[in-house]
Design a protein that fits this description.
258 residues, 8 strands, alpha/beta, 8-stranded mixed beta sheet, binds zinc ion, 10 helices
């Protein structure tokens, strides 16, 4: 797709970046992103992908806006308390950029739904808050070869990674979410609702997810594929650790090379 005059102006600060340019912005405008969760991580991710001009954004969340959400879920407002989060977030996205398509799915994500949604996405963002959903999204992303931008935040601790199992130019594939967190391992669900979370930490993580998604769509830079970024917001420390594929991973182990 080629950009019209309004788009050239609106996205001029992206176009000025040599690493993105007109070509990269055209890819962003033609891009299709799936965002799972319209809460703390999904809010900044959705707002930035909308402002950056991602042509088609699908938002999935079955929850409604509650007063306790407003401390950190910046797509929502006091005036929209009680509304579906996907509707509230769509309103916020439209106010910034009415020229993109926002599809809302006010349903709890299950495997069947995710399979259909991931099949028509170029990138998926995991902004959910539970392991069952994370694993279901990961399975669909591995199946359809769609890069997954994963984020998590609790208390003062944040994590961001990209799980991209597509073969690169050298034939190498990155690990998937299940290589790192085996689906059958016992997990203790921790949620912001019970544990608390520092408000801007979810903004940091969600914004990083948006940045990774934009790089994937515009095919520029180096992503967090094969790496896990750990954020300690209490002592302000950022660490990146390398991740390896698990050749026996039940989700991606069948993909060559082992
Ligand atoms: Zn795997």
């Amino acid at each position: 797709m080629s950009l019209d005059d309004d788009q050239l102006l609106r996205y001029s600060r992206h176009i000025l970046l040599d690493e993105i340019g007109i070509e990269g912005q055209e890819k962003i405008c033609a891009g299709r992103a799936l965002i799972l969760g319209a809460g703390g991580l999904g809010s900044p991710a959705a707002l930035y992908l909308a402002s950056a001009g991602v042509g088609s954004i699908t938002l999935v969340d079955d929850d409604t806006v509650d007063l306790t959400n407003l401390q950190r879920q910046i797509a929502h407002t006091e005036a929209r308390l009680g509304q579906l989060k996907v509707e509230s977030a769509r309103e916020a996205m439209r106010q910034i950029n009415p020229h993109i398509d926002v599809h809302v799915v006010p349903r709890r994500a299950d495997a069947e739904l995710l399979d259909a949604l991931v099949a028509s996405a170029d990138v998926a963002l995991d902004c959910s808050d539970n392991f069952a959903t994370r694993h279901a999204l990961n399975r669909a992303c591995v199946l359809h070869g769609v890069p997954l931008v994963s984020g998590a935040a609790i208390r003062f601790a944040g994590q961001v990674s990209v799980f991209d199992t597509r073969a690169d130019a050298a034939g190498q594939r990155g690990p998937c979410y299940a290589c790192l967190f085996p689906p059958d391992a016992p997990v203790e669900e921790v949620r912001c609702a019970t544990m608390g979370v520092l408000a801007p930490l979810v903004g940091l993580v969600g914004s990083l997810q948006a940045a990774e998604a934009l790089k994937i769509l515009s095919q520029t830079g180096k992503t967090l594929g094969g790496k896990l970024l750990l954020i300690d917001a209490l002592d302000t420390d950022f660490q990146t650790i390398n991740l390896l594929r698990n050749p026996h991973c039940p989700v991606c182990g069948h993909l060559p090379p082992a």
